[in-house]
Specification:
Layout: H1 3-22, E1 25-31, H2 35-53, E2 58-64, H3 66-74, E3 81-83, H4 87-95, H5 108-111, E4 114-123, E5 143-146, H6 152-166, H7 173-185, E6 190-191, H8 194-203, E7 209-213, H9 214-224, E8 229-232, E9 237-241, E10 244-246, H10 248-254, H11 257-265, H12 270-278, E11 282-283, H13 286-291, E12 301-302, H14 304-308, H15 311-318, H16 324-331
Parallel strand pairs: 1-2, 1-3, 5-6, 5-7, 9-12
Antiparallel strand pairs: 3-10, 4-7, 4-8, 4-9, 4-11
Length: about 325
């Protein structure tokens, strides 16, 4: 072989290796309002991975209503990882054989790297004097929330309202269902997802109160300005978790298991936890939670396990076909 041919062969091999390296990618399928969280997180992980392995990695995102997202994965969307806002959606993928049955034990903290709480966003000056869940069922109050049947945000709001009613003097499931029914009658529409609900409330100026995650308040402030709204913490609200999982069938097919594992593991790193706090998600790190205490007011919370016997039982009771939501919505 001539020197030129040797050179050309070497060049082609080097080019092929470079292209193969450039094609290493992950798809993270996530819930609607996580866009900024992962927009900030992904460059941190890319820098970490490059320093550790010398490898460039392309990180792709898909966002939407959480239940619609996992159904897309079940229908063939090749997500390497899912980062959701409710355990039921990951359980759905486990039932389909796409993620491990024990996915919530594959990572610390029930596979949730951070938490949040459901809060109220009201207009500047709080003209309707909205202070607690009971105010949302009053005449003349319009409530904006994502669809409880299809979104984690909507389900979390629904369960928060139900639990608050249940904890009132003389509270019962029957009374809670009646209360949530009155609240939902005050919803002029159900948004497709958390970000759509925010746009409806802030940009389209529909509604008196937006039900959303605590972290969404800061994203609203960045986009619309802090003077345009106020945050109200109700007397009791749901502590929300954000479960993550590998999509086993996809990572094994693509050969990305090691990379995908590292991508999710890094959410618990100091950099990953700091990123969560900067995006107004409550980090699992006690040190960082203390550092950012000023932006995380004390709030009385409950978990789905505390009140509803766990995510699976809550889903079956309230959101499966024929459950409490369907019963309420039929009468709405």
């Amino acid at each position: 072989m001539s020197r030129f041919n040797q050179f050309l062969s070497g060049l082609l091999l080097a080019t092929a290796a470079t292209l193969a390296q450039a094609e290493v990618s992950l798809l993270n399928v996530s819930y609607d309002v996580a866009r900024d969280v992962y927009k900030d997180y992904n460059p941190l992980f890319q820098k970490f991975w490059k320093a550790k392995t010398g490898e460039e990695v392309t990180l792709k995102q898909s966002h939407g209503g959480s239940t619609k997202q996992v159904r897309a994965v079940a229908d063939g969307l090749e997500a390497d990882v899912v980062t959701m806002n409710q355990a039921n959606d990951v359980e759905f993928l486990a039932e389909k054989g796409l993620v491990a049955k024990d996915w919530n034990r594959k990572f610390p903290n029930n596979a949730s790297p951070y938490t949040s709480a459901m809060v109220f966003i009201v207009r500047k000056g709080n003209p309707k004097s909205i202070r607690d869940w009971g105010d949302l069922a009053k005449d003349g109050v319009q409530v904006i929330l994502p669809h409880p049947k299809n979104t984690g945000n909507g389900r979390n709001s629904y369960l928060s309202a139900w639990a608050w009613a249940l904890k009132q003097p003389g509270g019962s499931d029957q009374g809670a269902q009646a209360f949530v029914g009155r609240l939902l009658k005050n919803a002029p529409l159900f948004a497709a997802g958390g970000r759509d609900a925010t746009t409806t409330f802030m940009q389209r100026r529909i509604g008196d109160v937006l039900l959303t995650f605590e972290c969404e308040a800061e994203l609203i402030a960045r986009e619309f300005g802090k003077g345009e709204f106020e945050v109200v913490y109700p007397s009791l609200t749901l502590q929300t978790e954000f479960p993550v999982a590998l999509v086993d069938k996809v990572v094994d097919k693509k050969g990305t298991r090691k990379l995908a594992q590292a991508y999710l593991d890094y959410l618990w790193s100091p950099e990953g936890q700091e990123n969560a706090a900067r995006n107004y998600l409550r980090p699992r790190s006690a040190e960082l939670l203390k550092k950012y205490a000023a932006q995380f007011p004390a709030v009385k919370t409950f978990t789905v396990d505390d009140v509803f016997g766990g995510p699976a039982k809550a889903f079956a009771t309230h959101f499966k076909d024929g459950g409490s939501f369907d019963q309420i919505y039929v009468s709405k």
